[in-house]
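Hello again,

I reread your note about wanting to compare the complex against the isolated chains. To keep things tidy I'm splitting this into two emails, and this first one only covers the full assembly. Below are the input lines as submitted, including protein chains and any nucleic acid or small-molecule components. They are followed by the predicted structure of everything together. The single-chain runs will come separately.
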Amino acid sequence: MTQLLWNGLFVGSFYALVALGYTMVYGIIRLLNFAHGDLYMLGAFVGFGVLSVAGGLATGLGFVALLIVMVISMLVTGTAGLLLERVAYRPLRGAPRLSVLITAVGASFALEYGMRLVAGPNPEVYPVRLAGDPVNLLGARITIQQASLILIAILLMAGLQWLVMGTETGRAMRAISQDPTAALYMGINVDAVIARTFFIGSALAGAAGVMAGGYYGKIDFLMGFIIGLKAFTAAVIGGIGNIKGAMLGGLTLGLLESIGTAWIGGQWRDVFAFSFLIIFLTLRPTGILGERVTERV
Amino acid sequence: MTSYLTRRLSRVALVGSAAVAAMLLSACGNGLASGGGEKSDDGPIVLGMLTPLSGSSSAIGPYMKNGAQLAVDEINGTGGVNGRKLELKVEDEACDAKSATAGANKLVTAGVKISVGGYCSSATLPTLPIFEKAGVPMLIPAANSNELVAQHKKNVFLINGTGAQQSDAALKFMKKVGATKVALMDDNTSYSKDIADTTAKLLAGSPALAGRESVTAGESDYSANVNAILKGQPDFIYWTGYYQEGGLIIRQLRQAGYKGNIMVADGSVDQKLVDIAGPEAAAGVFATMTQTPDTIQGADKWIADYKSKFGAAPGPYSTQAYDAVRVAAEAVKQAGSTDGDAVIKALEGIDGFQLFSGPLKFTPDHTLSSGGFQILVVENGKIVLKDTLQ
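Full-complex prediction:
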């Protein structure tokens, strides 16, 4: 049982990191950025590229190398998020919601098959792998690496929480999410703040991508699809638009999957997990922590 | 195999079907343009091959294509068949039903006389009626799901051992290593579920079935599945899916502390399996596999020919594709024409034609009389022959 909970929390922290980007963007401009999962994929590939170029140097450093690579990858995916917003979303800000949604799906395809052109269709294997001897903790097998990945995820989330609740930028973000027009009248540079939101959300997805690459080892150009769906589910369960909700939703979904698999078998896991999406959408569309009824797309 | 592409396309069904429609249209266009010249009786005999050149199994495509091309060149070098040259046309199957049907239509309109392709079972399945309607006999070199056999189409012949034969070989080896509790894991695709189902039926008494688990392909974390399968305390785990998930599952099984035997089916036999799992975790993993160039005794000259021609070593299904072309040529020779029914009759009559897997004689089901499956093992990071099960 402890093992189940641990597995759930570990997977859940990945979902949470990716869900944060979904929820931030949705919270501010009411856009479901379907390309978000593919930014996670982009992050994993950037990390792979940097590690391959660094070669033996990186393999020697191990975990530290992954940390450095993670920061580089966050900067690159963050910039890609900026670009995406500038090219695909900003020109459509006044357009009907459906147009923006379709653009998001298009952006997702463009990222995936663009990466396929660059990196080829075959899966790649990370040159630096995180593997360690597990220690027994209350009946669960836990490796130091798993624990440190969760720690990194927690630190990133705490940093985000501080950024949103404790800084000027954060206050501007919250203001825009309440009323963009009023925020504009108050002298907030709406475009700049939205761009910053995209940068932060995408950087978090990139970090999760590098962490997944280093831990699981295998990356491919479609790896962002399923986790994108799962992160979206997590964001809805937690209450889309709500940052704490995304964290909670990610962990909840991870636990649901882990326990669901143990109870009713792996072939039913996705049925089990996605049923909760439907249940939440019908019974409590605001999610666990949602504050107000949001418009659904 | 339900590829990622299939799932992706279903997400935006509209965009997907529009793209497929466009592909089909362009397929017809090309076919009509080039189909005109194939009617004459002294032009080349066109053989068609569907093989994955893109998508998750794209590594296999060149192996099959080159194997077939080698046979075509050899046969043309000795004067061709009935005085006519052979010509190979290759289309991308992408391990995806939509691409495969588009490719099959393209081949049929290009005037293909015999099909010598088919890798992923779920992609090959929808192409059977297309070739049947066009009266084109199919010699399938790799795809081997029992579902293909269960269609009972008279134009379909399998050059690879079937799922049932693979299960038999797996069971034989499980007994040999003294397994008592066997757990099965599949990825819910036609090919994978098929082997798991037939193996599960064989597991009664000793060794006994100690659990079954289906995973979702395309994910990274299978720890929940691993946990569930280890609850049955198996001492032998058989994974029947493809190598990408296989590598991750092997690694995660070992991380969860599983010390027993692991075996994978032929869809997982790829060097990338070892890379993804990591050489330490993959060490000692067994595999059920039909003959590959590396494991066939006396194939040295053939391998050398292949290497000098294509500048790369042959891989899985190179030999089966090579054999498929040779069998096709033999059948046309015996039939004296390229007429579909005559060729099918000739194929059914072939007895003792020498293939890499042994002398050929099709069963009434149009499968090989013996599958030729053997056991491979991962040693020092390489997949090598362990046991021929003879």
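For quick reference: The domain at 164-289+373-387 of chain B is CATH 3.40.50.2300 (Rossmann fold).

B.
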